[in-house]
Amino acid sequence: MLIVVLGLIILFVISFTLFIKKLLNNSSQKGSSYVDLENRLERIENKLDFILEKIKST
């Protein structure tokens, strides 16, 4: 009985560790995705500014 309880505790610790690791990994991927999205939006903004300048100058 003691072996079963110890096995379950070890299994819980391993599962919990892997869960936390996966959670942190997903969180960091979302952060990099937001940076990429911000860069894309900045490029679009720059292009729109360029177009507006062209329209104003004509």
Describe this structure in words.
This protein has one helix and no strands. It is rod-shaped. The longest helix is centred in the middle third of the chain and has 56 residues, at 2-57. Helix content is 97%, strand content 0%.
Strand content range: under 5%
Major β-sheet profile: none
Total strand segments: 0
What overall form do the CA principal axes indicate?
rod-shaped
Mean pLDDT: 90
Distance between the termini: 86 Å
Return residue spans where pLDDT drops below 50 for at least 5 consecutive residues.
none
- Work out the helix count: 1
Radius of gyration (Å): 25 Å
| Helix content bin | over 70%
The H/E string reads H
Structural class: mainly alpha
Task: Tell me briefly what this model is.
This protein has 58 residues and is an all-alpha fold. The protein is built from 1 helix and no strands.
What secondary-structure arrangement, pairings included, does this model have?
Blueprint (H helix, E strand, L loop, with lengths): L1 H56 L1
Key words describing this protein structure:
0% strand, 1 helix, 97% helix, 58 residues
